[in-house]
Design goal:
This protein is mostly beta strands and 707 residues long. It is 13% helix and 37% strand. Helix 6 (234-243) packs antiparallel against helix 7 (257-268).
């Protein structure tokens, strides 16, 4: 009898520790009738590894995002984009700080996109390259130093500096992507805010994983990993796992690269969602541990693209799946010697409700369920029979929904079974599908019992070489068709963003007003009075500051808080100068964020001087000649001449051409304000000693032409 090579190889790989030796036992360079007598055909569509669609998925590893202390923890490899924790290789204190070294991947990664403390992505001084945390409450308290696992990476600079003689330049950890993390010491009263779980405060990292060979990119050398690039393309990642020393270790000469090029194009195709956005058809992201069985890793990876691995006519390992292929071969009744058919699934194995989970990026890359796929008609007849599909390496709910539809159709086919045929069925030896027509009664009025496209699940020759044995499952193009407007399920509810860690409120309704007071000698000076609203908490004290506008961060000066605790004052201020003010609350030794800055212009004399009078203006060569009498107001200190080009426009925005110091009723004759030839509009404005004026201080406009 024929047997299925797929099952044989799965069993062999499971029992073997050296995957390269397993493949060597089954690989063939060519094919002839004499080599396949009495065996399963090692050609055509024989499955090497079935996708996860035909197996109960292995429970995902929930420790992926934990930072663990393990003397000899399993090594982890990252594909695509995902969030990881890691294994500590160092955990020591020095100079009041805690130093941690965390291995993220046992293979070079492309980048760390995000550094998370708890459920909060931090802002770091060097962006994706780590650095010091810039946001509250770990501002300046946590430092990240990443290394991406390159073959030539240097030893961690921070560890060499802090642990001289212990951590040396030889401790390079080449090939291991890792992060040095420093928790700097804080005051006791700040510990619960800065480090809520003390030394075990959770750390996670959003990682772009392994760089892989893209067989469609001519610029990449398959044997030179320096030319490779990061990818989420499912076909590229599966091909990499087959070839990599920490994967299946197949030589490239044993792989049907053309089939992976074809699958790469399928995975990269654009699929439109209901909202009009698009995504690649099949993406892959996740991790695997080096202590996992290769068949489990492959099943998880293949499930992202409905993929199956097959051995082709030349004995090369190829990939197929992910789409409907119209049959090119027909197997009619005349070629069928015997058939064992089942219409629909055996009821002991079938299901009519499929629960589907995937990995949601916006849920911190945690398992997330989409709306279950159901057959309500079946449920009405036999009740609910459920099954589950864990798409641990699928990063999209819409991709998961499309894959669930394919699995549901494959697991609930119209027909399945096996047939024994004549040798004419050898035409289907290298085919993924064939149309099988079975009409045992030959009743033309009724039509054939079975006439449908089928996926070939097994192909063999009997020992006597008199016929072929085919395993099949009916498949329809409808299984792969997708109408997002009708079929796309709602996106699963996502968690709310974590509440801000800053538990000390920021003062609100902050204002500043001038307070004018008479000082020695009868002069008037200005104080700035800052005020803000009270808060319901009773443990808050205020801290206020002011500075001259433009003086920078170093210009801030403290302000004394008044007895009411809700106001502060600074002064006397320099007359005519402008100042910034701000305030924050303090609870214990923990500050809030500073309030918004409010600004005050210091004006000791807020009484405007009257406008100049007895004014004469004429254009002369080289300027405008003014004759005028200064304001009669006793507080006048200067007359300003404002000018703008042309005979239009308002005072606002006009440039100051001249500032003339003056006293009350002081007469000026023939004062020339220099200007180039042309038309101008002028205003004369009286200002007091504080530089203050208003509309009553303005004379003009005067339109003159300078010659």
């Amino acid at each position: 009898m024929a047997e299925t090579i797929g099952l044989a190889i799965i069993s062999a790989v499971t029992a073997s520790a050296t995957t390269g030796a397993v493949v060597g036992a089954y690989a063939v360079a060519g094919i002839s009738l004499s080599t396949i007598v009495g065996t399963t055909a090692l050609v055509g569509g024989s499955l090497l590894f079935q996708s996860a669609f035909g197996q109960q998925p292995k429970q995902r590893n929930e420790t992926q995002q934990s930072v663990l202390n393990q003397a000899m923890g399993p090594r982890i490899i990252v594909y695509g984009r995902t969030m990881v924790g890691g294994s500590r290789y160092l955990f020591e204190t020095r100079n009041g700080a805690l130093f941690q070294g965390i291995i993220l991947s046992a293979r070079e990664i492309d980048r760390i996109e995000g550094y998370y403390i708890g459920d909060r992505k931090t802002v770091t001084s060097a962006g994706e390259n780590g650095g010091t945390v810039q946001d509250f409450p770990q501002t300046g308290k946590v430092y990240f130093e990443p290394y991406y696992g390159t073959d030539d990476q240097a030893a961690a600079a921070t560890l060499m500096q802090q642990f001289p003689g212990i951590w040396t330049a030889d401790h390079r950890l080449r090939g291991l992507a890792h992060v040095v993390v420093v928790f700097f010491g804080v005051k006791r009263e700040e510990q619960q805010i800065v480090y809520p779980q003390s030394y075990a405060t959770p750390l996670r990292f959003l990682v772009r994983g392994a760089k892989v060979w893209d067989p469609t990119n001519g610029a990449m050398d398959p044997e030179n990993k320096a030319t490779w690039a990061w990818s989420e393309n499912a076909a590229d990642c599966i091909l990499d796992y087959l070839r990599h020393r920490d994967g299946m270790r197949f030589a490239r000469s044993r792989i049907d690269v053309a089939s992976f090029i074809d699958m790469h194009g399928l995975c990269a195709e654009t699929v439109t969602r209901k909202d009009g956005s698009t995504e690649p058809r099949y993406r892959l992201g996740g991790t695997y541990a080096l202590n996992e069985a290769p068949k489990d890793v492959l099943a998880r990876m293949l499930s992202t693209c409905d993929g199956q691995l097959v051995r082709g006519p030349t004995g090369l390992i190829g990939i197929r799946g992910g789409r409907f292929r119209n049959p090119l071969v027909n197997i009619p009744t005349e070629q069928i010697i015997a058939a064992d058919l089942t219409q629909g699934n055996d009821r002991l194995d079938a299901y009519n409700l499929l629960k589907v989970s995937y990995t949601e990026p916006d849920n911190f890359y945690q398992p997330t369920e989409i709306q279950a796929r159901q057959d309500f008609a079946s449920q009405a007849q036999v009740g609910v029979i459920d099954s589950a599909l864990d798409l641990a390496m699928v990063p999209s709910w819409t991709q998961a929904a499309r894959l669930a539809k394919i699995k549901f159709a494959k697991d609930n086919p119209q027909w399945r079974g096996s047939t024994r045929t004549t040798l004419a069925a050898l035409d289907a030896l290298d085919q993924e599908t064939a149309r099988i027509v079975f009409d045992p009664l030959g009743d033309a009025d009724v039509g054939p019992m079975m006439d449908t496209p089928c996926t070939l699940t097994a192909f063999g020759l009997d020992a006597a070489m008199t016929g072929c044995t085919l395993g099949f499952t009916a498949i329809s193009a409808d299984a792969y068709a997708w109408n997002p407007a009708i079929e796309e399920p709602p996106r699963p509810a996502l968690p709310n963003a974590p509440a801000p860690v800053n538990i000390v409120p920021t003062p609100v309704n902050v204002t500043v007003n001038p307070s004018r007071r008479t000082v020695a000698g009868g002069a008037t000076a200005v104080w700035g009075v800052l005020s803000w609203n009270a808060d319901a908490r009773t443990d808050l004290t205020a801290q206020a500051q002011y500075r001259v506008v433009g003086s920078g961060e170093s210009g801030w000066q403290p302000i004394g808080i008044r007895g009411d605790g809700l106001s502060a004052e600074a002064g006397p201020l320099t007359d005519g100068q402008t100042y910034d003010f701000r305030v924050r609350w303090i609870a214990g030794n923990t500050p809030s964020n500073w309030s918004n800055i409010v600004t005050l212009a210091s004006v000791a004399d807020a009484n405007a001087a009257a406008a100049p009078y007895a004014i004469g203006v004429e254009g002369v060569a080289g300027g405008a000649k003014f004759s005028f009498t200064a304001s009669s107001s006793l507080n006048v200190a200067a007359t300003f001449i404002h000018r703008r080009a042309g005979f239009s426009g308002e005072l606002a925005g006009a440039a100051v051409a001249d500032a003339i110091a003056c006293g009350p009723n002081q007469r000026f004759d023939s004062f020339i304000s220099p200007a180039a030839a042309g038309p101008y509009r002028y205003w004369l404005v009286s200002r007091n000693a504080s530089g203050y004026y208003d509309a009553s201080s303005v004379a003009g406009p005067f339109d003159v032409t300078v010659t």
